[in-house]
Amino acid sequence: MSQATTKTQRRVSWFEATARQRLAALLDPGSFTEFLGPAAREISPHLALFSLPAQFDDGIVIGKAKLRGHEVFAAAQEGRFMGGAFGEVHGAKLVGLLRAAKAASRDAVLLLDTGGVRLQEANAGELAISEIIRAIVDLRTGGHSVIGLIGGRAGCFGGGGIIAGCCTRLIVSEPGRISVSGPEVIETNRGVEEFDSQDRALVWRTMGGKHRYLTGGADCFVDDDTAAFRAAAIENLAGRTPLTVSVLEAEQARLKARLRRFGTAKDGSEVWQALGVTNPASVPGMDTEEFLNAVRAVRESADDAR
Amino acid sequence: MAIVGVVASGNLEALFERTDDESACRVEISTAAHGFQPLWEAVLRDFVARGAGGLRISINDGGARPDMVALRLAQGLRLMQGPEA
Question: Which of B6, B9, B30, B34 to substitute to test the interface with A, most A CBs within 10 Å?
Answer without folding.
Answer: B6
